[in-house]
Design the sequence.
C-alpha cells in the first residue's frame, strides 16, 4: 500500500507514518510542501491514500486540495489540521475529502479513522457533521484529545470490493460489518465483547458504532436497536 503524507512538520509526518507502517504495512512517503508532494505523486504513480496538512505556511489550503485532487483523482484524501474552526471544516466539506482528522486526535482514533477511510468510508468529526446538516457549530474551546464518542462517521458510497471488508450491502446504507455490530448491540454486548467476536480492535468497534448511529439517525445505542427493529433490520 502506497501512502503519501504532506506536512511541513517532519515530526508529525513521521509519527503518522509510523502508525501507517505498523498498522497497515504501508510504504509511506513524506513531502514537506504541496509542490513536493505533487512531484512525488508523479514518481510513485498510483496512491492508496494521500494525507494532506490543511495549513502549510505560504500555501493556499483550497489550492492545495484542488491540485491534490487533480493529481490523484481516484485516491482518498484525508486532510488533517491543528485547527477545527468552521472555515476549515467547510473547506473539507466543499472539497469532498475522505476524512478530516484533527492533529489532537489520539493514536487510537487516528488508526480507527484510517481503517474506515481505507475501507471506503468517510471519517468526519462531529463539527463537520453539524455543518453538513446546516446546524451551528459550537465555538471551539480547549479540550482533551477527542474520542470517537465525540465524533460521527459518515459512510461513503461503497465500492464493489469493499463488501468483504465491510462494504455496503444495501440494508439501510449499513455495511455488512456494521450490521454484525448492530446485531451484537441488540444482544447487549459491550464494545470489548464485540471486538472479540469480530476480531477487531475496540477503537474500530467505536468507529462502527458511531457510523451505525449516524446512518440510522439514532442518538444512542438503545435507540439504534429500537429503530433497527422498527425498520426490519434485526
Sequence:
Amino acid at each position: 500500500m502506497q501512502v503519501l503524507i504532506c506536512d511541513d512538520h517532519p515530526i508529525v509526518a513521521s509519527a503518522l507514518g509510523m502508525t501507517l507502517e505498523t498498522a497497515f504495512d504501508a510504504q509511506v512517503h513524506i513531502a514537506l510542501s504541496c509542490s513536493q508532494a505533487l512531484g512525488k505523486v508523479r514518481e510513485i504513480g498510483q496512491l492508496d491514500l494521500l494525507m494532506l496538512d490543511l495549513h502549510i505556511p505560504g500555501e493556499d489550503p483550497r489550492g492545495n486540495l484542488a491540485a491534490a485532487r487533480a493529481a490523484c483523482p481516484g485516491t482518498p484524501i484525508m486532510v488533517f489540521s491543528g485547527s477545527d474552526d468552521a472555515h476549515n471544516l467547510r473547506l473539507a466539506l466543499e472539497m469532498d475529502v475522505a476524512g478530516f482528522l484533527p492533529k489532537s486526535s489520539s493514536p487510537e482514533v487516528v488508526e480507527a479513522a484510517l481503517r474506515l477511510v481505507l475501507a471506503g468510508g468517510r471519517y468526519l468529526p462531529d463539527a463537520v457533521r453539524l455543518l453538513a446538516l446546516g446546524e451551528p457549530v459550537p465555538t471551539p474551546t480547549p479540550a482533551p484529545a477527542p474520542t470517537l464518542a465525540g465524533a460521527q462517521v459518515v459512510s461513503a458510497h461503497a465500492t464493489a470490493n469493499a463488501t468483504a471488508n465491510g462494504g455496503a450491502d444495501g440494508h439501510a446504507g449499513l455495511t455488512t460489518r456494521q450490521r454484525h455490530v448492530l446485531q451484537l448491540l441488540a444482544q447487549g454486548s459491550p464494545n470489548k465483547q464485540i471486538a472479540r467476536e469480530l476480531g477487531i480492535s475496540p477503537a474500530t468497534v467505536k468507529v462502527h458504532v458511531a457510523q451505525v448511529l449516524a446512518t440510522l439517525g439514532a442518538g444512542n445505542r438503545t435507540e439504534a436497536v429500537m429503530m433497527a427493529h422498527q425498520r426490519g433490520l434485526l
About this structure: The CA atoms of residues 83 and 102 lie 7 Å apart. The mean pLDDT is 76.
